Amino acid sequence: MVWGAIAAVLSAQVIGALWYSPFLMGKLWMRTTFPNRSKESIAHASGPAYAVNIVSSAGIALMLNFILVNFFHVETVLEAVKFSVGLATLTALVDAPHLAFSQRSLLAYLIDHLFDTLSLVSMAACIFYLN
User: Fold this and answer.
1) CA atoms within 13 A on the CB side of 30
2) Which of 49, 84, 86, 128 keeps 20 to 30 A from 112, CA to CA?
3) Which positions, given as ranges, span the membrane (predicted)?
4) DSSP state of 105
């Protein structure tokens, strides 16, 4: 359990670093999420967000491990992937009304939730293979 959860957290961090890098979605995400702020001001205020991200990823990895292994008794990587895609879809649907009421950028919402999907799939695969 421990190695799967650790690998899951690390995989989510690596995917996040790549996904939100300037080479992939980073520039587009920054423009749509923070339209009137400089890159420097965003970077200066992002320290606590990184801490929240790591703690959140650890919590997700532990809960995902419990759900996949102890509750659903997932036996194949395909089952783990399907479950994680379903979970990502559910979280995107839960967040959709917040998107509408807060009038956030639809593009930023899609970028974030595609990241969530990739992250959950990689976490589920790590948990499956290392359990």
Assistant:
1) 16
2) 128
3) 6-29, 50-71, 106-130
4) -
Total length of the chain: 131
**CA pair distance 108, 31, nearest whole angstrom:** 9
pTM of this structure: 0.91
Residues of the chain with pLDDT under 70: 1
Question: What's the count of helices (H) and strands (E) in the chain, helices before strands?
Answer: 6, 0
| 112 CB burial (10 A radius; 0-12, 13-18, 19+) | buried
User: Cα separation of 101 and 90, whole Å?
Assistant: 18
107, 110, 114, 120 alpha-carbon torsion, rounded to 10°: 130
d(CA 49, CA 26): 16
Q: Cα–Cα–Cα angle for 49, 10, 82, nearest 5°?
A: 100
C-alpha to C-alpha distance for 111 and 116, rounded to whole angstroms: 9
Distances (CA, A) of 64 to 10, 17, 82, 120: 14, 21, 13, 9
Where are any strands of DSSP class E within 1-131?
none
Residue 119 amino acid letter: S
H or E stretch including 12? helix 2-19
